[in-house]
Amino acid sequence: MEINAKMEPDIRSDRSLEKNSSYDYNLEGIRGLAALSVASLHVFGIKNYLDPTYHPNIYFGYLQAAHTAVLLFFVLSGYVIGLTTTKEFSIQQVHNYILRRTIRILPIYLIAICLGVLAEPDEKLNIVLGNLFFLQNFDKYFSFSLHPIAGDAALWSLNYEVLYYLVFILVWWLRPKILYLFLFALLISVVGWFMPLFPQFISGYASGWIFWLSGLLLSWKVHPSSQKESFLPLISYILLFHATNHVFTDNSILSVLGFPNPVASFINLSDLTFLPICILILCEITGRYFYGLIYLRLLCFLLPIFQLSQITLKGSIFNPQLVVASFFTILAILLVNYNTSVNILKKIPLMGRISYAFYLLHMPIAVLMRKYFPWQGTVLSFSLGLLIWLVITLSLSSFLELVIQPKVKSQWLLSWTGKVTE
Known about the structure:
By secondary structure, the protein is mostly helical.
């Protein structure tokens, strides 16, 4: 493969590249909803996370699909990288790719770490340093651990993302068949589940990579249809997305069938039950249809129904989480013929644009609110604290993404182009 080091650097932002790649900005809306879903888990699903002396009714904690939302982030990440990395591999293009990823991730990430340390100042130095180098993981690295900092546990997923960005360079260079990569990742994921002594962090990376590869495959191999649907049962899909999250979280098919793995990674083989709904939503929104999509739609409805039926037979149906999952599933089936314009997602593009900062900042701001907000312990104080937390998080995220990030980008790119012309 020829390496052309004389190519002019492609230093456009991801967003400008996305425009030239017919990027569908409805994805910004989905990304924003996913970020809100993760935040909802932390303020409603984790008891006393925002207020140390009051927590709302348990059912508020089920108005989210946080775990599946993070996996959807992986799919979207692979999809966008596939769209924005269209030129032939070269040393210069790799430099451009690394520069764009660094500018996009690092500045806001460093601010998030600072806020996390401010929220929990007793954090150990080795944990902070591990997070600075994207080494944080809930799993052990063989005999030692480097967890996300306590003040911002949401940083865990960046460990996965950065690894996938780096591995993509090899995929871009060697261009292996994606099917072989899928089979390899699946094999490692299976081994990790059925052999608990296998390093779980490796199988965790493999399981998450299957989601990332799915997005990459859709962007590289499945072309947008000229007959893209303007209307689709979006509400039904979102309800199904939530139902799938709740029915399979802590109740995997493998465990129900008698194959549990109590030491499984945070991302593991059982999470593949979330993959169909993630792919379905992405395909429907972007109009990337492939043979068999109709069966994928059917599978997305059958999976939670099958799981609920198995759990019901075991007598656990009165678990609140499963009650909510059943409600979402039934509602998704009832609304499957209720079509909504896909462009409704364009009405919330700002949330998508600031979703990265919002995702990284919402936890340390919530911890600071829990520690220092003067009114606590009542419905009114919780509601006021929730509103203030949301306003601060949205405002700071908007400032960082829309003001600071462009300035940092322009300075870094100016420095880069200066070096190229010297």
